[in-house]
Amino acid sequence: MLETALLAAIAWLLLAAASFRFRREAGVPNPRQVRVLRLAAAAILALALFRCGTPLTGERWVRVIGGASLGAVIVVLALSLDAMMILRPLRQLLTRPAPALLRRLRREHHL
Amino acid sequence: MAWIHGWLGLLAGWILFAMFLTGTASYFRPEITRWMQPELPGRSVTTAQAATAAVAHLQTVGADDVQWYIYLPDARTGITRVFEQPNPKAPPRPRGELQLDPRTGDPIAARDTRGGEHFYRFHFQLQLPYPWGRWLAGLCGLFMLGAIISGVVTHKRIFADFFTLRWNKGQRSWLDAHNVSAVLALPYHAVVTYTGLITLVVMYMPWPIAANYAKPLDFAQAAYGLPADAEASGTPAPLVPVGPLVAAAERRWGAAATRVVIRHPGDRAATVTVARHPSASLDARGASVTYAGATGQVITQSPDPGPALATIGVMLGLHIAQFAGPALRWTLFLLGATGAAMVGTGLLLWTTARRRPGVAPFFGLRLVERLNIAVVAGLPIGMAAFFLANRLIPADLAGRADLEVQAMFWTWGGVALLQLLRPARRAWAEGFAIGALAFAAVPVVNLLTTARGLPWSLAAGDWTFAGFDIAMLAIALLLGIAARRAGRPPRLPVSRRSKVLVDA
């Protein structure tokens, strides 16, 4: 359950970074990055859904919805206190220069 | 729609807040009861052993009873509870709920208390006589459902404001807090409200059953496969050992048993009905199997529920969440707290939106504000008083369970009246501060009056007691923060133009 709430919280954080309200704090000016963040968030939410099963039929849905709600409350509370600090790791990840290998691949494949 | 949302929320808001708060506490009903009876040991035995021990005790004290109800221990309750239905021809003797040591079957002396059951019952009966409390709770539930639907329709920027929570901005902040607590946990609020209404739907709409069955019991027997109440044969026959029947039923389901009902013990027509534990399925109406008490043969078992019964069973299960393990239960507890926050912030928003600077508040505004303080700040103090009374009223005092309940309501009523003597802003701050002190006092009083204080519980790894005390301290901290914030003087609204002039 804790894993579900944590995964959901990470997914909500990515969605918050992709939202118009927090895009600047997250350093996400590029619409393509926004799409990538949203896709990643959806993938993490799907992962949370697949990893929270129990022997009880149907409890998976209760867990994922409960965990996602709780994760969202935690993320919004955290962002309301200091959005810049909460989004700093994501900002650093998104704005750091690409490694040499990645740059070479991009150049070779004209990406 | 906004008008409907506002008035639905306001008219039912105070009762809904109380329902949310006590309902949220009820997720830990057995744990609260255990904390409130610190004399009870926490022993783990198999349900079959507990059933055998309980039957041995009942055979010595009530062999001529019509029926025995045995509630078996589990990881959360830890003890066996039994009720006897006496033989009307037998000489009267004091009876009632008995708590038994699950290992030996001996009665355990523990302080009389309503425990977590008090919050659970208050949640849908509102301390009113049957059926008025349930009707009022249903009406408020209906208002809540209407408020949820109208709130979603009204909230045009539901996605744009999804992550928006701004502090220290007056009315804007209350609106953000109301939106965030409502929208982020919307699935929970919708499910818990709708399933709460469905839980009592047979009471609210009894006509389909009344039109098709002579008695409600006939419906229950047909729907849930309950055996008809057979008469005693009058021929004595020893009861087969019940423990193996419980074990056989558990093997049949692959899940634990929760309850054993023995009818006409010691008679050739005796029956033993074993019911499955609700943690085995989302469907709260668990399966059951009935054995002949004289032979141990299976007489009947509950049929597979049809779609309608399965649906209502799952809805009840989703509402009371007895299937949930500790982590999911804590999650639901926190989401329940967001529900209370949603109703509380909605009530506060109503007053904040209508207050005008420099204008004396009109009567309705003052009334709503005072009711808000009485309920939002007063009820938590009453709940803390209930816990404190449990530890401060002598354990062997007659009628102490009622005194505990009275302590809660007298304290709540006292706070509701005394706050009228203080200016509203001070009353908010002082109400929250008293709540913080009262909740912080609970673990302290527990430490001073029992041998199960927080340090000893932590050392013994007793997470029921430790968790309860830590939760009390966490609530005290939250109320302390609320008191601090409520005590701050309001920030005067400053226009952008005047701000520019001051900066210049």
Question: What key phrases describe this protein's structure?
Answer:
heterodimer, A: 111 residues, mainly alpha, 78% helix, B: 504 residues
Verbal overview:
- The complex is a heterodimer of chains A (111) and B (504).
- With 111 residues, chain A is mostly helical.
- In chain A, 78% of the residues lie in helices and 0% in strands.
- Chain A contains six helices and no strands.
- The longest helix of chain A has 28 residues, at 59-86.
- The model of chain A has no long low-confidence stretch (mean pLDDT 86).
- With 504 residues, chain B is α+β, with helices and mostly antiparallel strands.
- Chain B folds into two domains: 2-38 and 117-150 and 188-200 and 322-487, no CATH class; 47-106 and 226-302, no CATH class.
- Chain B is 59% helix and 7% strand.
- Chain B has a seven-stranded antiparallel sheet with strand order 3-2-1-4-5-6-7.
- In chain B, strand 1 and strand 2 (80-85) form a beta hairpin.
- In chain B, helix 1 (2-25) crosses helix 5 and helix 13 runs antiparallel to helix 14.
- Classes of the chains: A mainly alpha (111), B alpha+beta (504).
- Chains A and B meet through helix 1 and helix 4 of A and helix 7 and helix 13 of B.
Summarize the topology.
The complex is a heterodimer of chains A (111) and B (504).
Chain A: H1 2-18, H2 23-26, H3 31-51, H4 59-86, H5 88-95, H6 100-108
Chain B: H1 2-25, H2 29-35, H3 47-61, E1 67-71, E2 80-85, E3 98-100, H4 116-125, H5 132-154, H6 171-183, H7 186-199, H8 201-204, H9 207-212, H10 216-224, H11 242-253, E4 257-263, E5 271-276, E6 288-292, E7 298-301, H12 307-320, H13 326-354, H14 363-392, H15 400-418, H16 424-449, H17 454-460, H18 463-487, H19 496-503
Antiparallel strand pairs in B: 1-2, 1-4, 2-3, 4-5, 5-6, 6-7
Helix pairs in contact in B: 1-4, 1-5, 1-13, 1-14, 2-4, 3-11, 5-7, 6-13, 7-12, 13-14, 14-15, 14-16, 16-18, 17-18
